[in-house]
Amino acid sequence: MKKTKLIIDFEYEFTLFGISSSTKFYKLAWALNNHLNFHLVRSDDYILEDQKAGQHHFGMYTFQEERGEIDFFKNQCLGPGQAYLLPELIHFDYILKLSGILQSFSKEEMLKELREIKWIEYIADLEVNKLKSKDNFLS
Question: Which residue pairs, CB below 8 angstroms and at least 24 apart, start in 86-93?
Fold first, then answer.
């Protein structure tokens, strides 16, 4: 009997930035709001299901508008354990996800603005298609 495989290829229509900072999560969210005129608001924890370890909760701030959505995540889980939202990039403390909002800004302009925030020690544009755990951002 011939077997048929169903292959699903998702469209990843968002941009990710990895941020390294020793600043508290809420303080960096406040800085993003003030510097870039965002309106990030603390939302419910982002929950990932793991078959072996159960649920992992990640802190999250969200801002939604007509042009798109901005999500700001803490990369390390809030509970016990060493789970990461992007396990291949544990050196980043925070992840900034932009969906649709970059229509008015280029990535370079956004990076330039983000680098001006004094509490951001390092920021990088992450290539979504090269990440192993990119499915963690599909909601």
Answer: 86/18, 86/126, 86/131, 86/133, 86/136, 87/132, 87/133, 88/131, 88/132, 88/133, 89/18, 89/126, 89/131, 91/20, 92/18, 92/19, 92/20, 92/124, 93/19, 93/20, 93/21, 93/22
